[in-house]
Design brief:
The chain has 187 residues and is mostly helical. The chain contains 6 helices and 4 strands; from the N terminus they run βαααβααββα. The protein has a two-stranded antiparallel sheet. Strands 3-4 form a two-stranded antiparallel sheet. α4 runs parallel beside α6. The chain is elongated and about 50 Å long. It starts with a strand and ends with a helix.
């Protein structure tokens, strides 16, 4: 995939803002008990899903911040996705028909097991995603191709920041679908 860097940045911001609006609609009017009710035994609640997204986002927000300190500000005209970025994005993103084909086991470090405080969890979710939006905006000053960040899998696997945005937003979209499914089951 190849496109104008500014277009990719604007599309990424818009995709994140759209997903956040969807989350606001999903959780609107739900009480604390419903927010903490699991879809089924061994499945997540709405809050656990939001907490998982916050945990994952914090890793990337931290890694993006470090990358911006390390790399020079040299924006490029175009962004070209790397095969690794395409692979991970396709693996995590829902398909065009909103179907999630690849079931994935959550890493233990990102698996929120307990009941959660609704206000803290929701505030944390929106705060980490606002931080992500700010970093996406900052990326206008950097090469989306040359600046790389470690993934949540560790420092061995790194993605170009343009691909990291695609991956994170695919992950977010995947879990927005999960939130809708959970709400349908528990509300």
């Amino acid at each position: 995939m190849k496109l104008k860097a500014t277009t990719h940045i604007q599309n990424s911001i818009q995709q994140c803002e759209n997903a956040l609006s969807e989350v606001e609609q999903i959780i609107a009017g739900l009480d604390d008990t419903t927010l903490n009710t699991q879809e089924a035994a061994g499945k997540w609640s709405i809050l656990q899903c939001l907490k998982h997204l916050s945990i994952a986002n914090k890793i990337y927000v931290e890694n993006l911040g470090k990358a911006f300190e390390k790399y020079p500000q040299k924006p490029e005209e175009t962004f070209k996705s790397h095969w690794k970025g395409d692979y991970f994005t396709k693996m995590i993103s829902p398909k065009e028909n909103n179907e999630v084909k690849n079931k994935m086991k959550t890493m233990r470090s990102m698996d929120p097991k307990q009941a959660l405080n609704p206000k803290e969890t929701i505030d944390d979710f929106f705060q980490t995603h606002q931080q992500l939006i700010e970093l996406i905006k900052q990326s206008e000053n950097y090469s989306l191709n040359k600046v790389k960040v470690p993934t949540a899998l560790g420092p061995i696997i790194k993605l170009r920041i343009g691909d990291a945005f695609r991956f994170l937003l695919g992950h977010l979209d995947r879990h927005v679908l999960q939130l809708k499914r959970i709400k349908k089951a528990v509300a």
